[in-house]
Design brief:
- It contains 5 helices and 6 strands.
- The chain has helices at residues 13-24, 41-57, 70-74, 90-93, 115-131, and strands at residues 4-8, 33-37, 63-67, 84-86, 102-105, 135-138.
- The strands form 2 sheets. It has a 3-stranded parallel sheet.
- Helix 1 runs parallel beside helix 2.
- The model is unreliable at 139-143 (pLDDT under 50).
């Protein structure tokens, strides 16, 4: 079954490349459609090209396309599959509480931030998630 995977924030090079690569390597998600969304074109266009190259070079079925319009990307997504927000700054997570099922944090060190800052973010996100009845998970990266 083909899945539509909408990646909002796909202009984030590390996040997008690693997550898209992992998803493409998952047999159960073969043939997936990736809708990449960001606020600006330069990095988003590079991620679209990367995704299309990954599909072609690895003989994987699927589709990758990019847009600046979130509504266009999500308009025909399956509403019965979870919506996950990954690596949200807790100060910005509140407005999205009605549209997320799971809050995920990628616990890699963010440049220019001390390690205790990530710990504080996790605590803050946990409070936000629990306050609105949502799950929270850490998303470790293989480094």
């Amino acid at each position: 079954m083909t899945q539509k995977i909408v990646m909002i924030g796909a202009g984030s090079v590390v996040f997008c490349k690693l997550l898209m690569s992992d998803i493409m390597a998952t047999p159960a998600l073969a043939g997936s459609e990736f809708a990449l969304v960001s606020r600006t074109w330069p990095k988003l266009e590079r991620m679209e090209e990367f995704g299309q190259r990954m599909l072609k070079d690895n003989g994987i079925e699927g589709e990758v396309w990019a847009t600046l319009d979130r509504r266009e990307a999500i308009k025909d997504a399956d509403p019965y599959h979870p919506v996950m927000l990954v690596h949200m700054n807790p100060d910005q997570a509140g407005p999205y509480h009605n549209c997320m099922d799971i809050v995920m944090v990628d616990p890699y060190l963010v440049p220019n931030h001390a390690i205790h800052k990530m710990s504080n973010w996790m605590k803050d996100l946990r409070e936000v998630a629990l306050a609105v009845g949502r799950e929270i998970a850490g998303l470790p990266l293989d480094r």
